Amino acid sequence: MPRVKSSATESKASRKAAAADTKKRTKRTKKDPNAPKRALSAYMMYSQANRDRVRKENPDATFGEIGKFLGAEWSKLSDDGKAPYIKKAEADKERYATEKAEYDAKKDSDESD
DNA sequence: GCGCTGATTGTTGGT
DNA sequence: ACCAACAATCAGCGC
């Protein structure tokens, strides 16, 4: 595996609990001028891929149910099952990296606009 | 160097 | 247009 454990950075499950306890988030203020919209997570890919299927199997289900269904199945999914989604997520991360690069380059060149 | 928190992504449906 | 649970993820700041 190319994934070599750097340290404890990802081991701790603190932030997830903290984030859940801290406060519900959604659209929060944007501080950066041209903030490079972060990449989509594997779950986002999963929602896009399954949103149609879930909606079809659960025509009555609305956002709430769909969300829970996707989350439940997502958790049930094995690493192999997530693999394709994670792969897309990684691809998106790369896209984000490109945006970040431009964002960084831009801010370095002209941040005042 | 590690630790946490904030910000962001996408879905739908209602107001 | 925004917000709600669902999960992930990263970048930036703090000590």
TrEMBL record:
Molecular function terms, GO-annotated: DNA binding
Family annotation (SMART domains): HMG
UniProt cross-references to Pfam families, sorted A to Z: HMG_box
Superkingdom, taxonomy of origin: Eukaryota
GO cellular component, as recorded: nucleus
Keyword terms of this UniProt record: DNA-binding, Nucleus
Gene3D superfamilies named in the record: High mobility group box domain
DNA-binding region: 36-104
Ranges of biased composition (kind: Low complexity): 1-20
Matches recorded under InterPro entries: HMG_box_dom, HMG_box_dom_sf, HMGB
Residues annotated as domain HMG box: 36-104
Region span, Disordered: 1-39, 93-113
Family the UniProt entry places it in: Belongs to the NHP6 family.
Protein name from the UniProt record: HMG box domain-containing protein
Organism: Linderina pennispora
